[in-house]
Amino acid sequence: MKPAPFDYVAPRSLDEVLEVLAERPDDAKVLAGGQSLIPLLNFRLAQPTLLVDVNRLPGLDGVAVASDGELRLGALARQGRLERDPHVAERAPLLAAALPHVAHPQIRNRGTLGGSLAHADPAAELPAVALALDARLRLARRGGERWVAARDFFRGLFATALEPGELLVEVALPPPPPRSGFAFLEVARRHGDYALAGVAAAVTLDERGVCRRARLVLLAVGDAPVDAGVAAAALAGGPLDVERIAEAARHAAESEIDPVGDIHASADFKRHLIRVLAARALAAARLRAEAA
Ligand SMILES: Cc1cc2nc3c(=O)[nH]c(=O)nc-3n(C[C@H](O)[C@H](O)[C@H](O)COP(=O)(O)OP(=O)(O)OC[C@H]3O[C@@H](n4cnc5c(N)ncnc54)[C@H](O)[C@@H]3O)c2cc1C
Question: What pLDDT is stored for residue 49 in this prediction?
């Protein structure tokens, strides 16, 4: 298939992009890496009448560490670049661990962080990571901007808090607390395929090795990334031993998701995967927190 006809603009400044988006909020689409949007256009699943190519915008692809230790990532940063960035490896090891699971190197060399978050595929890795890391997202529009927490950003199947006319411009990740460990695990039929199920885990220990805080976010088992908050909260205040981890994983798989089976995996198989992956990810995160 070929796309339906559309107009095309490639502004060279953020103000210009926001102006164009404000003028045609309902029929314009932002084109970033194009790795999701172009297939949608070709299948005519999306038929915007205007494409606003943001690839020529300067300054929105940076990686910086703010004075408070927050990692600031430009929304236009390519996934492949982030995968190789030393600041990301040091300050956001969960993101670094997840990135190699996103498609293939050729796709990551074009695909952007912001494009993945804005697209909000429930099987995508980066939305789950943003949620697990309590990311904040900066959304700009003509005449203003706002910050939205990741937990408020993902609204459902391919749905986010982005309003017509808004552009995601930056993602902020808080610095990991001391004695924190992270793990990302997923099962896909072939490496680079979308996951059948996946897990992002983060734990923080106190000086005695007791769990202070745990996060467990699940992908490909709901309309959006699922925060298994009850299972994770039950881990706080005790040791991260095998029994407690197994119980948290069981609770997440049995009580915090309602997966829909498809031709690739039944609902039962997805539950099974979550139970196994969650236990493994929490155990791996604990080991890394102990070594931190
Ligand atoms: C063969 C193949 C396999 C893939 N496998 C995976 C996978 O395993 N896991 C995975 O997560 N992804 C996968 N993808 C998708 C890929 O990761 C995309 O790069 C990503 O989803 C979208 O990023 P993009 O920059 O290409 O965005 P685009 O395709 O340009 O845009 C996607 C959507 O987001 C909007 N958008 C983009 N940037 C912004 C912004 N800054 N502000 C507001 N809206 C914006 C666009 O308007 C569009 O609606 C795969 C893609 C292909 C082709």
Answer: 94
How far apart CA 277 and CA 197 sit, in angstroms, is: 9
Q: For ligand 1, atom 2, which residue shows the shortest CA distance?
A: 103
Q: What is the pLDDT of residues 151-198, one digit of tens each?
A: 999 999 999 999 999 999 999 999 999 999 999 999 999 988 999 999
Domains and CATH numbers, the chain: 7-53 (3.30.43.10), 63-173 (3.30.465.10), 180-291 (3.30.390.50)
Q: What mean pLDDT is reported for the chain?
A: 97
pLDDT tens-digit readout, 224-243: 999 999 999 999 999 999 99
> Among candidates 196, 229, 215, which has minimal Cα distance to 123?
196
Instruction: State pLDDT tens for residues 94-108.
Output: 999 999 999 999 999
Q: In the structure, which protein residues have their CB atom closer than 6 angstroms to any atom of ligand 1?
A: 29-37, 39, 75, 102-103, 107, 111-112, 114-116, 118-119, 121, 124-126, 162, 167-168, 194
pLDDT at 110: 98
Q: What is the whole-number distance in angstroms between the Cα of residue 122 and the centre of ligand 1?
A: 12
95: which DSSP letter?
H
CA atoms of 154 and 117, how far apart (whole Å) = 8
CA distances from 59 to 15, 165, 168, 170 (A): 13, 20, 13, 11
Contact 251, 231 (CB under 8 A): yes
Nearest CA to ligand 1 atom 53: 35
